[in-house]
Structures are given as C-alpha cells and as structure tokens.
C-alpha cells in the first residue's frame, strides 16, 4: 500500500478519534448544496448529487442530516468553487479546493496560512500541471473475489486496484470515474467513499522531521471551514508515518 493510502487511512482514523465528524459532515453538506444547485434534487439524474449522497452514507451521516441538507439546499445561498495553488515549506506543491460563500474571506485565510507557515501562494496554474486528476474509490472487503472484481471493472476505466487492511482502493482514469462507480453498483459492491483527486505525477521526498512539518501545514489548510480538499506532492514515507 502506498504512503498516500496509509496517510489517508491514518487521517480518517485520527479524525474519528478527534471527533472531527462534524467537519466531515459540513463538507459533505456543502457538496450536496452545490450538487443540487447544479443539477437538481433527483440523484438518479444528477451524478454529482448521487456521489455526494453515497459519500454521506459512507461517512455514516445520519439520514435526518442528509434529508435536512437536501431540503435546505434549494434555499441556501449558492457556494462558489475556487481553487488555490502554491508552495509549502521545502518547495512542496499544494493544490487547494474550496467551496465558499465569501471568496475574499477564503483568499485571506489561505494567504495567511501560506505566509505564517513559510509557504507562498501562487497564481492559477503555478502547480496544477504537476497533478493528474483521477478517481479514487474505496470499498470495504466483502464476499467478492478481488481478482474477479478487477476483471469486471478494468474495461470500465480502472487503472489500479490496491489492497489495504480493511478494504481496497480503486484508482480510475478521469473519464472512467463514473463508469467504474456504475459497474460497482451493478455488481452490488458497497462503496465507502468515491472522489476525484489530484494525484502528483512525481512526489518529493523529505526527511521525516521536514515531512511532518509539511503535513502540519496541510492540517492548517484542511481545518479551514471553506476548504474541501488539499493535494500535495510530498512522498509520505514510513519514517514520516511513524510520527503519527
């Protein structure tokens, strides 16, 4: 299992231990809001909403919370999707995706974190070329045969199929993201989480102490209420993971 996959699992476990579920729910609610504004409240005809609802269930979000989010989405103010790019310490590239009702506030917060933590906010396109957009789907282990499942979904757009302790991580081509999800649904395979991620073409290796400093900066970005996702090109080594 890659370092990034291990780190994703650690973040999920740490998030539960630190009782950060409310922030996870808040980000899902924002995604539901945008999806409804964009394509209506029928998940059958709105792939983005269907994805958000699947992720809500995967995060064990209560049904009442989900229904309340759907009901309020039509009446709440539309959120803007904004991205920011820059460099953290040691030249680590950072790409940040936000949903906000106040772009000026969000820009100020992002710039402040960069400046206070030894990084620099860049212009649009300054690091985007370092990342490839792919689908990442997590499924728990079940009664299916993993080898047979790979054969079933490879033609739909699967690129990689990685096993970890409690499940599998499926990576897809951008254009195959929806079709792989659809095929999993047809096969009755439960999806724990599915999202589009920006995967670095190349990662940068740092010593453990420096790597931990960078991840702490990433945490500051992720704790901002307007931030949905943060991607970077730091290689998450076993030495860095040992600090968590």
Q: Would you write up a description of this structure?
A:
The protein has a domain of 71 residues: Orthogonal Bundle (Arc Repressor Mutant, subunit A). It is an alpha+beta fold. Helix 2 runs antiparallel to helix 3 and helix 2 runs parallel beside helix 4. It contains 9 helices and 8 strands. 45% of the residues lie in helices and 23% in strands.
Termini separation: 17 Å
CATH class descriptor name of the domain at 3-73: Mainly Alpha
Question: What is the overall shape?
Answer: globular
Can you count the helices? 9
Quaternary class: single chain
Share of helix among residues?
A: 40-55%
| Strand numbers in spatial order across the main sheet | 3-1-2-8
At CATH level 3, the topology of the domain at 3-73 is Arc Repressor Mutant, subunit A
Which CATH architecture of the domain at 3-73?
Answer: Orthogonal Bundle
Give the DSSP E fraction (strand runs of 2 or more residues).
15-25%
Alpha carbon gyration radius? 18 Å
Report the strand count: 8
What is the CATH superfamily classification of the domain at 3-73?
Answer: Integrase, N-terminal zinc-binding domain
Order of helices and strands: HHHHEEHEEHEEHEHEH
Q: Specify the structural class.
A: alpha+beta
Name the average pLDDT.
90
Taking pLDDT < 50 over at least 5 consecutive residues as the criterion, the unreliable ranges are: none
